[in-house]
Every structure is written in structure tokens, then in C-alpha cells.
Amino acid sequence: MRVGRRLGFEPCLRILARAMVPASSPAAVASPSAVPGLSAVPAPQPEPSMRWLVGLLLLAALLPRLGVFFINENLYGDAVVRTELAERWWASPHVITSYKDGTFQFGPLHLYLVGPLLSVFDRDVAGRLVSLVFGVLSVVPLFALTRRLFGWRAGVAAGLAFSAWGMHLQFSTTAGSEAVSLCFMLGVFALVAEGVEENRFQPLFWGAVLLNFACALRYDAWMYIPLLTVALVFSSEDRVASLTRAVGFGLVCLPFPLLWMQGNELAHGDPFFPLNAVEDFHRQWVVDSGGAGGSLGWRLQQLGFWPAVALFTLTPGVALLGAVGMVKAWKQHPETRWLVVAAVLPALYFTFRAAVMLSFVPLARFTVTQLVLLPVFLAPGFAAVVAGRSAFARRAVVGVSAVLAVVMPVALGIYTFRVEGGLHDSLRPVSPTSTNPVAVMQVARFLKEEVAARGGAAAIDDDPRYMDLQLAFFSNLPELRMARVRWDTFRQRLQDAKPDVVVRFDEGNLLKDKGVTLDGRTLTVDGVAYVEQDGFQAPLHVYRRQP
């Protein structure tokens, strides 16, 4: 344990230890009667071995993720950009202090985690492996949280529902930051629940430490500092104790945000520079997506976004039972209301910004911290739905929910796997399988085998759908042997690299360059002629330098 403390993993070790402590042990006994407990459904019978339960849940989470790990590719969640930034950081390790210090709008902790693995694994594996580890481990704090609130059976149900969550399968097998951040956030919720129930500050302290880590990964975690701090004010009938816990928790949450704000103030003159950059991006995104006029259709689409993602990705049985469970818990178990608020209030905030203020464009991956709490409330939701009904009805509800939870993600994964166009592209962001367009990967393989492997160089056009980022990443070409139109240094790199191959996109900006002309199948770049090669599909065109 001492090694764990030195490495900063004590909060995670504490959660794992707590999850494995039987309810009949002193560590799981409720706090004194003066403090209301959080165990809404106390287990009347001895629990099975927690080690076995946690081990089985880890296995249940691991197997489906391993099933797609070897076929998935980095595509969404800025996975390739994050990996490239981690490569740059690992080439010159340093403490990242601001937006322009090597991380841009992304959290620095993700680069710290991915960078070292790049010295051991290929660039298309390292970041995905980080996500896999944290994605599988997420089931532990989820089980610990649910078991504390509603008993071990509820914890198992939540863990199994989480293991089959198709969208999270993609997050766990691609190099975005969602799986890592969600693991930390579940740890925060589990530790806060422990601290409130047992009337102790130590779990709250470690929860605040984990919240610092989550804030260093994604900016949406920042809102949970005031949200959980205020929730702690109302966590006990003893107002002095509640206020003391809340102040202490809030203060421990502040080190990373304050240091990050100071770094950006020194670098950019604005402590909130990264947040403002993200805000500006979303406002422009609303315009580009056709929502600037605020049409009724656009507003309705944003209004129903969170419920729609919950129903489609968690599947109807899990989502509806979880929602019913939240309502029941709110009415019958006031001690769990803080967790309901943690799920509902951020969803309402982002929905208001998207549907009313027109300043935000939601993506499915933005919903995970809220949606992951629905499985926590499966047990009370199931109890409410089947109350007074026959055994057959109870089995039917369980059976239908379980079948949908498995069949829908499997069917979606097959439907979107290496198939493009129309509905396939729209559903791919929430599918268990994540694959790049076939035409892009075909050119990427050509660049990797015919250019990168032979020490050559390439010029790469930009693409409005950002497929040039994917192409450059999977080509395995070093930066010094690429000239990319997307870069401000394109002209200089073009002169230095003297590319053997040029890749053009139909809607790219390469042809707008004054030094580039296209005549039939011949592309001329600064007086050097390149001839188009056969065998590639639009919108990509590959040109090789004439001898």
C-alpha cells in the first residue's frame, strides 16, 4: 500500500478494498444514527465473496472489450490528435502548464498517461491500451457505489449493464479520454458516497484528489467541483459537520484548476483561455451545423438528445429502469438525491445551452458521466416496475432488458463495421466498433508501405471532415517527412521534405495554393509534376512524382 500512496493510486486501492469488504464487516457498518445512511436497500442475508464478485465483473467488462479491441481503430474523440500530442510530449517530457504548452484544448493528464506507453507499443495501440485498462477498471467503483446504496445484487446488475454498454466499448478501445475520465469520476462518486454514509472526511479527501485528476483530463469534470461541494452542504442534518466537509472537499478539489488557470493567465493573459477556446469552437459549430437560426427542429433535436442517447446506447430496458429508479429513489430515499442531481443537473445545463442558448453542440460522448449513473438505479427501478406483478412478469422484464442490452450493441457493431454512408456514418459514433473509411485506410497503407517504409516523404491535402488527420496518423510518416496543408508551415515543409507522393482530397484546399495546378491526371506542385496513380477511391487522389 505504501507504494500505492507514493504513486498516487491510494484512492483507487481504497475503492477496490471497500468493494471487497463484506457488508457484515465493521468497515461496511452504517454510520451512527445521527447521520442518515445511504444504504437504501440493506442486504438482509450474508453477501457472497466480494473478491469473486469483483473478479467476475472485471472479467465481464474485459471480454467484450477485448472482442473489439483488435478490430477497432482510432477515429472519434480526437484520438489521433491526442496520440500525436503525447508523442511530441514524450519526445521532450515537461510539466504542461497551459493551452499552448503542448496540449491545446485537451487535458494534460491524458498525455502523461499515453506518452510513456509509446516507447513500448505502436502509436495506434498505446492510447487504446490506456483506455482499455481504465475502461475495464471502471466497473469496480461502479459496483462499490451501487452496492453501498442498494446492495450487492444491485451492484452486480449495474456492473453487467455497464459491461455490455456498446458506446463505452468503443471508448474503452480507442484513444480518446472518455474511458479514463469516467473511471476517475466513478471513483469520485463512490468515495463521496462512502464519506457521507460513514460521516468521515478521509474518503471525501481522496474523492477530491480523484476529481483533480478528472479535471486534468476533461473540462466537463470541472462543473462537479461546485456541484458536489454544494451537495455536501446538505448531506447531513448536522449542518456544522456538513458545511465543514463541504469546505474541506471544495478546497482539496482546487489545486489542479488553480495551477492550470495560473499557467494560462501567464501564457495567454486569460485564466480560462482553454475553456473560452472550446466555447468559441462550439458557437461556430452551431453555425456550421445549421443551428444558428434556432429553428424548432434544431431545438427539439437538442432537447431530446440526452434521453435519446440513453435509450439507444444503454438500451431501453437499462435506461428506462434506471430512470424509474432515479424517480423512486428521489421520493423514497432522500439520502441518494445528491447522486440523482449529479446525473440530471449537468444534462439539463448542457441541454439548455444547446436548445435555448444555441451555444453548444452535444455529442454522444459528452453524455457518459451522466448516463453511467442510470445503471446504479436499476434495482429500485426494477422493484418499482414489477411491484405486485407475477413471477412471470418479473422474469419477462429481466429477460427482455438483458436481451436488448446484449443484442442491440452487437447488431449496431456489425451494422457499422467497415460500412459507410448514410445511417452507418450517423450511428458509428455510438457503435461498439470504430473503423475509418475504407478509402482513407487504403491510402494510409500505401503511404506506410510505399513511402514511410522506404524513407520517402508525402504532401497531404486537408479535408473538411478531418480525414487528413486520420490519413497522416496511420501513414506512420514522421512529421519531418510530411507537408500538410492543414499546417501553417506547409510551404516550408514542402520545400524541405521534397515529397515523393502527394495526396489530394476532392474538397481540400491544396488546389487553392498558388503553386499548385491540376491538368487532367497531372498535378504540378512548384514546377514539379506528379502523375495520378490508379487503384484509389474518391474523394482521395494519389499522385507520384515523375522520374
Structure description:
Strands 2-1-3-7-6-5-4 form a 7-stranded mixed beta sheet. A hairpin with a 2-residue loop joins β4 (516-519) and β5. The protein contains 26 helices and 7 strands. α3 (50-69) runs antiparallel to α6, α7 runs antiparallel to α8 and α16 runs antiparallel to α19. The N and C termini lie far apart (64 Å). Helix content is 59%, strand content 5%. The longest helix has 26 residues, at 391-416. The protein has helices at residues 2-7, 10-19, 50-69, 79-91, 108-117, 123-137, 139-150, 152-163, 166-171, 178-198, 202-215, 224-233, 239-252, 255-268, 273-288, 296-303, 305-313, 316-332, 337-357, 368-371, 378-386, 391-416, 423-427, 438-451, 467-475, 490-497, and strands spanning 458-460, 482-484, 501-505, 516-519, 522-525, 528-532, 540-545. With 547 residues, the chain is mainly α.
Broad structural category: mainly alpha
Biggest β-sheet: strands ordered side by side in the sheet: 2-1-3-7-6-5-4
End-to-end separation in angstroms reads 64 Å
Total beta strands: 7
- Please state the CA-atom Rg, rounded to the nearest Å: 25 Å
**Runs with pLDDT <50, length 5+?**
1-9, 20-38
The share of residues in helices is 55-70%
- Enumerate how many helices there are, as a single number: 26
What would you call the quaternary organization?
single chain
Strand content: 5-15%
Let me know the average pLDDT.
Answer: 91
